[in-house]
Write a structure and sequence with these properties.
Rossmann fold, 8-stranded mixed beta sheet, 5-stranded parallel beta sheet
Length: 397
């Protein structure tokens, strides 16, 4: 999950949009706080204050923020790097000062962006050092399909089940696929509530209320089922989805997200929260072409292209495109390959029993290996050998 939470103080919507992109392009997961709810999400780690139009008001805002928290990182952004303004902002409590240089077309603006990214990374490092010894942060894995039918849900579901089975820790899978997600179906579960119930009740979304929305799987995996409405969640729901993911990160050790195969506003919210983005593709021309486009889009969004990991699904000796060609086309090495086993996967899907719990096929073993890598376990290592970590929620205390 996001290492930092950031808030942007400005009345200029274009400024807020530009700074949000700038913050998120720094190489570490960053969540943007748009509002507060009753879910105890905590205050921001980083606040960017716009002091361009009204320096006096901006200084007052910096002083208020600093008075409220001695640890928050405060960045002041002004129209120009005037020495007097820099000194005033530092005295008010700002940690960093940046001149406003949108666009990135000049060397000065590129230098400013590089300096800004470095400051964000330093803030993330300080936060990590300050929380050393505390409960380890939730790890969020997002599975994104290069195209429909690539097997994204199959990969996400079986990976989540294996992580829950191996670690015996708090693991939740969230179905954010557009137009009726199928995570619950793949797991043989009939949910009473969906992700829509969660985002429509953010004001009361604490661990007790969330317990009512979650469906349980016999593997120990918790499920937040996909919407049953074709048109939701939509772009208007994206900020609520981002806040929901922050709430889940406080309650779970691992979050697995099926983001579907469309890079819409909801999927983007999950990408910004991701520690790793697994792009699921098949070894065929349409899938690889779409995967190239997905990679380019993630880069444009500043969602952390360095977090992309390629998962090649349905690999067989009959494929005409060699893995090396795919790696060259995408500019990424293949992180994981799953062989094609139509019979085993179909039986698991139709029965609602994941591969790891239904058979001992080669592909089931591949998911076991993949999940061990996700959680940092070596081959044959038992969950009991892992350091115990206090669980915080839903029968995982």
């Amino acid at each position: 999950m996001a290492q930092l939470t950031a808030q942007i103080v400005s009345h200029d919507a274009d400024f807020k949009q530009h700074i949000a992109r700038l913050v998120r392009a720094c190489g570490v997961p960053v969540g943007i706080l748009e509002g507060r709810s009753g879910a105890e999400i905590g205050g921001p780690d980083l606040v960017v204050v716009d002091i361009r139009a009204d320096a006096a008001s901006g200084m007052a805002a910096i002083e208020r923020i600093r008075a409220a928290s001695a640890n928050v990182a405060i960045f002041a952004v002004a129209s120009a790097a005037e020495p007097d303004l820099i000194l005033r902002s530092m005295r008010a409590g700002a940690n960093e000062f940046f001149p406003w240089m949108p666009g990135g077309q000049t060397q000065a603006s590129r230098d400013m962006e590089e300096s800004f990214h470095g400051a964000v990374r330093r803030s993330a490092a300080r936060r990590e050092a300050a929380h050393a010894g505390a409960k380890p942060p939730c790890i969020t894995h997002v599975f994104l399909g290069a195209k429909g039918g690539a097997g994204t849900t199959t990969v996400a579901v079986n990976s989540a089940v294996e992580v829950a089975r191996l670690t015996k820790r708090g693991v939740v899978i969230v179905d954010l696929a557009s137009s009726l997600g199928e995570v619950a179906l793949f797991l043989g579960v009939r949910p009473r509530f969906t992700v829509l119930d969660a985002i429509e009740n953010l004001h009361r979304l604490d661990k007790d209320f969330l317990k009512e929305l979650i469906s349980k799987h016999k593997s120990g995996l918790d499920i937040l089922a996909g919407s049953e409405q074709f048109d939701r969640p939509n772009a208007q729901d994206a900020p609520a989805i981002e806040e929901l993911l922050r709430v889940l990160a406080r309650l779970y050790d691992y979050t697995v997200i099926d983001a579907g195969n469309i890079v819409n506003a909801v999927a983007v919210a999950s990408l910004y929260a991701a520690d790793a983005i697994f792009l699921v593709a098949n070894p065929d021309v349409p899938s690889i072409r779409n995967a190239q486009r997905m990679v380019d889009r993630v880069r444009q969004l500043g969602a952390g292209s360095e977090r992309i990991k390629i998962v090649l699904n349905r690999v067989s000796d009959q494929n005409l495109i060699a893995p090396k060609q795919i790696e060259t086309a995408l500019g990424y090495g293949i992180h994981q390959m799953f062989t094609s086993d139509y019979r085993a996967v179909s039986e698991a899907l139709n029965s609602g029993v994941p591969l790891a719990l239904s058979n001992h096929s080669d592909i089931a073993g591949q998911f076991g290996t993949f999940a061990r890598n996700l959680v940092g376990m070596s081959a044959g290592e038992d969950a009991k050998e892992q350091p115990e970590r206090k669980r915080v929620f839903l029968g995982i205390f």
